[in-house]
């Protein structure tokens, strides 16, 4: 019997895999470990302590930036997911027509355009509006985040819709369900895992954003990532590590919840 | 009400695509389906059966023509307003609901009271013998059970007409035979008009009150299984259902709808003419293999044709004879039932005669 080709049997495969693995996770592990350092240093271990976590929690800037980040992420993710759901329904529950591909491209364009370009464009655009309206609240950041979150929410929802058997909706209509009831009792429950995936993805993407936020924010509107970026220009203490570790923990929690929710569904 | 047809299709066409890609899946077709009958649409894959069914269900709207349900034109009515239910080929059970929830869905959408829904669901579960599985998810039951749930779900709202699109094609042979009997029982117990789609001629013949044979978007013949089998009026129908011999000939005389046809391979054949059909020039006569017998060629009078026996195939219950007729071109198949310990009467290469049973041969329209 001829031996099948297997990547795993190639010489050096394991070594390369291990190097990549360490390159990815070792820095993060080091970061997390030094969050618990008792001393000031990021490279000399002086014993275990939770002082930097306490310090982070007592830092008013950190708390304000965190709350702002969450506010923006929650609103942006919810609005983006609602919009993405409607867009996904509109682009899959229709006979293919001319211009549909263009619509896909239009919805997904934020993925293609370099973020810095969008950031500059929004900076110029919003500064005009700020002058005209005099409003300079969180609305700009939320609007910007919503816009770039839509394609991320759209992709899993559309994937789910495309895999859904259209006959199910037809069966509902056959059993006297109006279009709205069909959506409410059949499409939505089956689409739910896709919507949750979209929501979480949008939430994480918004939480993580630096470039657009940095350009769009007004004075005193730091989110957690832009606050951290600002701090890096000064002397760094393990407080940064502690904040990063908490941030990481939140991310892991979201992904875990998402994993279990998705697994439970069909 | 009693005189109205359950469903009437009037000159319905369904054209998909535009311009040079335009394609008539249903082509100017008319048919009337009576109250409480088991009506079957039979035809090869791609002939437009599903499209016709979907036009009745309301998933497609006709390009032209009328669809009447109990006399009312429903051609433009959306599916959720039509008192018609469908059993889908893929069953299309809702995966996020239990068996009972699936069955109750139609009544729930109609806004019926809870108590009524529960009673009806229980009744349906009993009808399809699925009482113990009411709380199961539809992914946790077998294909045959899913089939029953799909049936119960479609029957629960007591539709005027039940549409079934090849509902048995996904089942294995044994289960299919059981479900055929089950479907017949459900139809007679509920008294609901069934419109059943299949490409399996045996299924159509054994289950139906009447059969419509379709080809290329048109209904060619409608009749009882016996009529369709014994008296096909169309070449396609004769060829699609069972085995058939086709003979070319000329009509010599006509009396009382029976034509004397000269086939040029022996004597004349008496063949029935389709109603209202006036033959011109050459006609085609059809004859089932079991409606002819081999005889000695010199036995004049009884033998209408002569030829050479080419091949004898023994099948246990019967024997098939393949004869090359006297014109040297046409081949003719006969099927004779075997009797116990009967010696073969003829061998390959023998010159033989063919005797045709009376009332067996028919002239085709085309
Ligand atoms: N939505 C559609 N668009 C274009 N062509 C279709 C569509 N639905 C069916 N057809 C075509 O119509 C013909 C009949 O299809 P169908 O009714 O499904 O046949 P059957 O059920 O007898 O196998 C086929 O050639 C099919 O390709
Ligand atoms: Mg079909």
Structure characterization notes:
The complex is a heterodimer of chains A (266) and B (366). Chain A has 266 residues and is mainly alpha-helical. Chain A has 2 domains: 12-49, no CATH class; 60-263, MetI-like fold, CATH 1.10.3720.10. Chain A is 76% helix and 0% strand. In chain A, helix 1 (13-34) crosses helix 11 (238-264), helix 2 (51-58) packs across helix 11 (238-264) and helix 6 (139-163) crosses helix 8 (179-208). The two termini of chain A are 39 Å apart. Chain B is built from 8 helices and 20 strands. Chain B has 366 residues and is α+β, with helices and mostly antiparallel strands. In chain B, helix 2 packs across helix 3, helix 2 runs parallel beside helix 4 and helix 3 crosses helix 4 (143-155). Chain B has 2 domains: 7-235, P-loop containing nucleotide triphosphate hydrolases (Rossmann fold, 3-Layer(aba) Sandwich); 244-363, Nucleic acid-binding proteins (OB fold (Dihydrolipoamide Acetyltransferase, E2P)), CATH 2.40.50. Chain B has a 6-stranded mixed beta sheet, with helices on both faces. A 5-stranded antiparallel beta sheet of chain B has the order 13-12-11-14-20, with no helix packed on it. Chain B starts with 6 loop residues before the first strand and ends with a strand. Chain B has helices at residues 49-57, 99-109, 114-127, 143-155, 173-190, 201-207, 225-230, 235-240, and strands at residues 7-16, 23-33, 38-42, 64-69, 72-73, 84-87, 161-165, 193-198, 210-215, 218-223, 245-255, 258-262, 268-272, 282-287, 292-295, 305-314, 318-325, 331-337, 351-356, 362-363. Chain A binds chain B through residues 165, 167-168, 170-179, 181-182, 185-186, 189-190, 266, and chain B through 57-59, 78-81, 84-86, 88, 90, 92-96, 105-106, 109-110, 139, 153-154, 157.
Q: In what range is the share of β-strand residues of chain A?
A: under 5%
Beta-strand proportion of chain B: 25-35%
Q: Low-confidence spans of chain A: pLDDT under 50, at least 5 residues?
A: none
Rg from Cα of chain A: 23 Å
Named at the architecture level, the CATH assignment of the largest domain in chain A is Orthogonal Bundle
Helicity range of chain A: over 70%
What is the number of helices of chain A? 11
Low-confidence stretches of chain B: none
Bound molecules: adenosine-5'-diphosphate, magnesium ion
Largest interface: A-B, 20 and 25 residues
Structural class of chain A: mainly alpha
* End-to-end distance of chain B: 38 Å
Largest sheet of chain B: 6 strands, mixed
């Amino acid at each position: 019997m001829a031996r099948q080709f297997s990547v795993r049997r190639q010489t050096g495969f394991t070594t390369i895999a291990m190097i990549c693995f360490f390159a990815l996770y070792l820095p993060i592990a080091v970061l997390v470990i030094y969050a618990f350092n008792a001393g000031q240093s990021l490279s000399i271990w002086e014993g275990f302590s939770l002082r930097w976590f306490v310090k982070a929690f007592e830092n008013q800037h950190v708390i304000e930036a965190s709350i702002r980040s969450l506010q923006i992420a929650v609103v942006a993710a919810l609005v983006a997911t609602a919009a993405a759901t409607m867009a996904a329904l509109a682009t899959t529950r229709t006979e293919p027509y001319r211009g549909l591909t263009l619509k896909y491209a239009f919805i997904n364009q934020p993925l293609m355009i370099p973020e810095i370009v969008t950031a500059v464009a929004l900076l110029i655009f919003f500064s005009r509006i700020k002058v005209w309206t005099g409003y300079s609240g969180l609305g700009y950041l939320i609007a910007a985040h919503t816009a770039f979150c839509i394609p991320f929410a759209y992709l899993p929802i559309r994937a789910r819709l495309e895999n859904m058997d259209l006959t199910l909706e037809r069966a509902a209509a056959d059993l006297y369900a109006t279009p709205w009831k069909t959506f409410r009792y059949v499409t939505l429950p089956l689409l739910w895992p896709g919507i949750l995936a979209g929501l979480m993805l949008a939430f994480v993407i918004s939480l993580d954003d630096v470039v657009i936020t940095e350009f769009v924010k007004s004075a005193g509107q730091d989110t957690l990532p832009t606050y951290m970026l600002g701090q890096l220009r000064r002397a760094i203490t393990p407080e940064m590590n502690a904040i990063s570790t908490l941030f990481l923990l939140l991310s892991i929690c979201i992904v875990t919840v998402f994993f279990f929710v998705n697994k439970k569904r069909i | 009400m009693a005189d109205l047809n359950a469903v009437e299709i009037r000159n319905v066409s369904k054209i998909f695509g535009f311009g040079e890609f335009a394609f008539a899946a249903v082509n100017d077709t008319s048919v009337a389906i009576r109250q409480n009958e088991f009506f079957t649409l039979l035809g090869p894959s791609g002939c437009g059966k599903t499209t016709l069914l979907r036009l009745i269900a309301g998933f497609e709207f006709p390009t032209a023509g009328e669809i009447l349900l109990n006399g009312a034109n429903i051609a433009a009515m959306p599916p959720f307003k039509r008192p018609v239910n469908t059993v889908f080929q893929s069953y299309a059970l809702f995966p996020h609901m239990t068996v009972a929830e699936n069955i109750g869905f139609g009544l729930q959408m109609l806004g019926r009271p809870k108590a009524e829904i529960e009673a009806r669901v229980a009744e349906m579960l009993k009808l399809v013998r699925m009482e113990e599985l009411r709380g199961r998810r539809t992914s946790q039951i077998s294909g045959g059970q899913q089939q029953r749930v799909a049936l119960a779900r479609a029957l629960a709202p007591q539709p005027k007409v039940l549409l079934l699109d090849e509902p048995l094609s996904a089942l294995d042979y044994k289960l299919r035979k059981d479900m055929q009997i089950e479907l017949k029982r459900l139809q007679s117990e509920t008294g609901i008009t069934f419109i059943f789609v299949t490409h399996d001629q045996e299924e159509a013949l054994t289950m139906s009150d009447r059969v419509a044979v379709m080809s290329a978007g048109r209904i060619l013949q409608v009749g009882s299984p016996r009529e369709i089998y014994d008296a096909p009026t169309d070449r396609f129908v004769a060829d699609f259902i069972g085995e058939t011999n086709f003979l070319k000939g000329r009509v010599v005389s006509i009396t009382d709808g029976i034509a004397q046809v000269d086939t040029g391979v022996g004597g004349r054949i008496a063949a029935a003419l389709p109603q209202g059909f006036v033959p011109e020039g050459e006609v085609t006569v059809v004859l089932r293999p079991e409606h002819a017998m081999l005889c000695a060629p010199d036995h004049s009078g009884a033998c209408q044709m002569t030829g050479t026996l080419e091949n004898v195939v023994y099948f246990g219950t019967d024997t098939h004879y393949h004869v090359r007729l006297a014109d040297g071109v046409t081949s003719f198949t006969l099927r004779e039932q075997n009797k116990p310990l009967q010696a073969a009467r003829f061998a390959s290469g023998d010159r033989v005669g063919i005797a045709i049973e009376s009332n067996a041969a028919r002239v085709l329209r085309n």
